[in-house]
TrEMBL record:
<dbReference type="InterPro" id="IPR052022">
    <property type="entry name" value="26kDa_periplasmic_antigen"/>
</dbReference>
<dbReference type="GO" id="GO:0006974">
    <property type="term" value="P:DNA damage response"/>
</dbReference>
<dbReference type="InterPro" id="IPR007497">
    <property type="entry name" value="SIMPL/DUF541"/>
</dbReference>
<dbReference type="Pfam" id="PF04402">
    <property type="entry name" value="SIMPL"/>
</dbReference>
<protein>
    <recommendedName>
        <fullName>DUF541 domain-containing protein</fullName>
    </recommendedName>
</protein>
């Protein structure tokens, strides 16, 4: 009985290998959707950096300036959830020429500015309060999720249009999609902005423009496989 089952199993496997695998006619195409948006908010990272040869004094000076910066931010009526301390550090640095340690203290504040018309006032006030580093300014949209959805839909439409263009010359039609791969890479463009003028150089009676916000591109990339009919 076992011998007979073994023979049947071998016969079934032989028949299976002998059968031709049916290929499904299909086409693979890529699509890109792009939505251009004017940013309506910015994420700003600013830092107070102080140096000296006494760790306690360096930290104290740094704390005083950060306290002044935070008071100014609150005076700008920003919501408490729109600013936070991002990083705090106090590091020894050895001076090999003088053969002694110096200390470097830094504190970084991250600010979400939802009204770009306040940018100049905010940055000037922060510098006056003691901020001496602008680490990063990233422009973005408060409606990012909505625009990402629009970009994905445009990407699918472009993929289907490409497929229809290809098969139009061979007498076939594009059928249903069988696979969709999202190849989108999140990328947040850095801003283009002009250097902020000092209070001494600026003519306060003349409106100033220190930002060139421009547009940001919200992009989606997909790969789609369609059945050919």
């Amino acid at each position: 009985m076992k011998k007979a089952l073994s023979i049947l199993s071998i016969l079934f496997m032989t028949l299976s290998y002998g059968q031709e695998v049916k290929q499904i006619p299909q086409i693979n195409v890529s699509g890109e959707g792009k939505v251009k948006v004017i940013p309506d908010e910015a994420t700003i990272e600013v830092t107070v950096e102080t140096k000296g040869n006494n760790a306690k004094d360096v930290k104290k000076q740094n704390d005083i300036k950060i306290e002044a910066a935070l008071k100014f931010i609150k005076k700008m009526n920003l919501a408490p959830s729109d600013f936070k301390t991002q990083r705090v550090a106090l590091n020894p640095q050895y001076d090999y020429e003088k053969k002694k340690h110096n200390y470097n203290a830094t504190q970084t504040i991250e600010i979400l500015l939802k009204d770009l018309s306040k940018y100049d006032e905010l940055m000037e006030g922060l510098v006056d309060a003691g901020i001496n580093r602008i680490d990063n300014v990233t422009f973005q949209s408060s409606k990012l999720v909505q625009y990402q959805s629009e970009a994905r839909k445009l990407a699918i439409k472009e993929a289907k249009l490409k497929a229809e263009d290809y098969v139009s010359v061979i007498g076939q039609k594009v059928g249903r999609a069988i696979t969709i791969s999202d190849n989108t890479q999140n990328y947040y463009p850095q801003p283009r902005y002009m250097a902020m003028k000092t209070m001494e150089m600026a003519d306060m009676s003349v409106p100033r423009e220190t930002l060139a916000v421009g547009e940001i591109n919200i992009t989606a990339n997909v790969t789609v496989s369609f059945i050919l009919e």
